[in-house]
Amino acid sequence: MGSDVPDPARRVVVLSGPSAVGKTTVMRRLRAEYPELAIAPTVTTRPIRRGEVDGSPYYFVDDETFDRKIDAGEFLEWAVVHRRARYGTPRAAVEEALAAGRPVLIEVDLQGARQVRHTMPEAYFVFLAPPSWDELVRRLVGRGTESAEERERRLATAREELAAEAEFDATVVNTDVGNVCRELVALLGSSPSHARRH
Prior knowledge:
The protein has one domain: Rossmann fold. Helix content is 39%, strand content 20%. The chain has 7 helices and 10 strands. It is globular.
């Protein structure tokens, strides 16, 4: 579906995958070990969780503020996630990083990835997959942060997201966070990647 190597003039990699596959862990490691990467921030209407800080990596806003940003065309993509809170990627943050010559990584859900494919088709799309469905369920239940109802909702969403894997340019299986990070950094640079391509 896209070229094998991202356009060097606009190096944007979009990372997506099902809930609990480990996207947050991967992004946390990337921020710590690869500070040269520009990682697009996220604006969300979900409540702030214990230990989180506004602006790193989420900006927490109310529904009215989010609506104003939509109306002003400030999002590269936005979506309702798990049928509840809204999340969006600020267009300006991505464009500023690209203008400065920095590679950009955007982490979004499936809805967001599909929107970015329309708004920025030159981006390279990577699907982060679990080693197996059973492992995904174990990770989701093991987090202990969601109610039973929320877990079922997320599992239903995850099934839909796994079925969309073929829409992506490459798949990276999250068996080791360090390896996933190296794959993504390779994709954001000019060196070839060993990610499985469709």
